[in-house]
Amino acid sequence: MDRSLSSSYVVRRRFRNWAIGIFAIALLALGLWGLRRVLGSSIQAGQIQTAVADVGPVENTLNASGEVIPASEQLLTSPIRANIQRVLLRTGAQVRPGEVIIELDKSLMEIDAARLKDQLALKRNGIEKLRLQLNKDLFDAEINNEIKTLNISRLQAELEDTRRLYRVGGRTQEDVTRAENALKIAELEKKQLENNLRYSKQSMGASLKESEIQAQMEEKNLAELNHKLNMAHVVADRPGVLTWVQEQTGMVVSEGEVLAKLADLRSFRAVGTASDAYSGRLLAGQRVILRLNDDTLQGVITQILPSIEDGVIRFNIQLDQPQHPALRPNQKTDLFIVTNRVETCVRLPNGPVFSGRRNASVFVIGADGKAYRRTVETGVSNFDYIEIKQGIQPGERVILSDLSRFEHLQQITVK
């Protein structure tokens, strides 16, 4: 017959099982630690990257990205409002000076030119009619003035006769007064006519001048239209490469609308983009390093655009070698903006071991073939080098690879 176990026995048995389990886990951990200690304290030299500390300049840089573009790009616009009749050259084509890129339909412009020509002819005819009318009015005024002169001479003679007859009793005083008034009226009318004649001569010149100016304006409009007709095709005036062409035939384009972009691929510049977090650290005149595959170029920031879009700030870069053979249009590149420079310092090639930390733990290889842990203080850095302020002397060899798996060791053996 089965009996139930006592509670004290159950507790002792459970405690023993727990003790055995904890001891086994501790033994296993100790064995793994020892195994790691034995097997993990060495590394093959071919598995690590090393470098020797030297003395030289180090530049502190900010990472950015950029794009290579032609230094000069000409916008070719439509000289008239017209339809695109034919596209002769496409995007990417090499262009010579005088070569036609796009032909425009200028039939509507020719109709406008004919209309302006007719208007100018009417204006010239109107000027001639005005000149004839003014000459007639001037001639009539001069004839009237001569008639008035003769009339005054007649009235003067009549006045003399009346006075003579008055003295002998053949006329009265009223007759004399009447003759004198008639002469005065005639003289005043002649003076008025002479004034009108002077005004007519002056107004004749002003009227003709106004009409001539209007005709000259019409002539200029016609000449401008004829010039546009002569230039009614999009023509290159310099050698280059077409980076963009409006290739939709039949499309109606307005005067001044961009139809093509012609780039001079003999010289280049760059446009950079960086996070707006760097906006307070970017300045015009800062040096910039460009990485183009295996080539490294330098330039300077010439302009920082004031607007920020989508958290990105843009700036223009003038290259020191704008005609470098490695440059290509629309080429993407890595940029490094130089914000600080230390002329002389202990430096090492930048590697994974530093990870941007100000105080880094590195292994320095000694003469005995072992690498010893050492804490170093770093300074300015860029893609290539990092400044070592303390902890490394020139000529010492340092492991640059990430050795975080040896963080529990103070020394390792390099085989």
Shape assignment:
rod-shaped
The CATH topology of the largest domain? Elongation Factor Tu (Ef-tu), domain 3
Strand arrangement within the widest β-sheet reads 3-12-15-14-13-16
Largest sheet: 6 strands, antiparallel, barrel
Radius of gyration: 51 Å
> What's the CATH class label of the largest domain?
Mainly Beta
* pLDDT averaged residue by residue: 81
How much of the sequence is in beta strands?
35-45%
Compute the separation of the termini in Å.
71 Å
Helix content: 25-40%
Total number of beta strands = 21
Instruction: Tally the structural domains.
Output: 3
Low-confidence stretches: none
Secondary-structure element string: HEEEEEEEHHEEEEEEEEEEEEEE
Query: Structural class of the secondary structure composition?
Result: alpha+beta
Number of contiguous helices:
3
The CATH H-level superfamily of the largest domain is Efflux pump adaptor protein, beta barrel domain
In the CATH classification, which architecture of the largest domain applies? Beta Barrel
